Amino acid sequence: EAARISWSPWRIFFRVTLPRMGPALVAGSVWAVLVASREIAVTDIYQIRTMAEQIYLGYALGAGLDAGGFLPVGIGTVQTPQLVLFLVWLMFAAWLAMGRISGSLRQRNDPGILDGSQQRGSRAAVWATGILFCVPLLNLVGRAGMRTVAVGGIPQQRWSLPNLFHAMGTALRDSWPEWQWSLVISLTGAPMLLVLLLLVTCVASRNRAGRIFFWSTVLQLGVCPGPVIGRGLVALSGSSSGALWVWLWDRTILGPVLASGLYLWPLAAICLWSLLRAIPENLFDVARMNGRGEWSAWIVVVVWNGGRTIVGLWIFVGALFFGELSASHLVRPGGIDIVPRLALGKLHSGVDEVTAATGLIAAILLTVVALLGWWMVGVRVPRSAGGRVESEAMAERAGPGFFSG
Questions:
Q1: Quick check: 53 and 326 in contact, CB under 8 A?
Q2: DSSP state of 15
Q3: Nearest to residue 264, comparing CAs of 322, 216, 310?
Q4: CB of 225 within 8 A of CB of 52?
């Protein structure tokens, strides 16, 4: 407010807004680098020699295993540690940046971060991002609705809406088992991951050692490329000879669920951590004063205050489970195929209208589901530990949230 008296909107942006959003920009950039370095779908199509792609190719070509079964022979013994250390450094930078974000955004007396002209700039950025996302989506629409017809004996390509719907129907009909398996893996893996994360965060909230363990898992799994996780599970399954384990590994979706869960653990943990930071610490104190134990207070406060948000996070993580390929691709049992693997295989053999329709359906479905989940994550109704809606005065007096230490 003080800056608006004498400063122009652009000067406010560069002197007030940008310094406070700097940690967010760093964290977002680091996360984008980590995601690009861990996945294999785009790099496999364009044959980009990233570490994840080389590990996947080594597995696909039947290369031997070293380093306890995690890395393929052929990747330089000097180059690989350097890359891993670089990724660890990037993840550590993101960790520090997230701490800076939480500290700067919780200062109520600072000038607004996205007020006035900044809100208009934010809306413009959202529109620009939407347009950037719609360009490949429209490309899929154009390719899926295109069909070659003979006009006067001359083949010509014509686009029509019935052709688009016909291609989408054909894509669903021909790949219906893959859609079913992807949905089953998503509905099974997402709640299991969130329940496990809730238990881990409950333990981590008790002492510093628990928080160190929590963030250590985020750091270690956050720098592991998807194929490394998949190959680690393959090595683990090879060393286990129990009849029950062999049956679960070869006949069920255990492998894809474990691989996708480990791959998505860092992102889900950060989202859940942000949710728990928004719960005032005094609600836990009220629950303890009412005679509840540590576990009981944790369940009542977190579930009651963040029930809708946890459901939204479950939907969001479920969408990520549905589209995950980098880790689960190496551990799929025979007879179980998923939509991302099907689309990747079709893209290698050329893009026709059915392939474009498959990508279009998946893109629309996952985007809508993820946005629905993220909207539910952002809508929170503060409640007290006893179940009553918390007053605004109590919300203003609320101290630092969970994990503030």
A1: no
A2: I
A3: 322
A4: yes
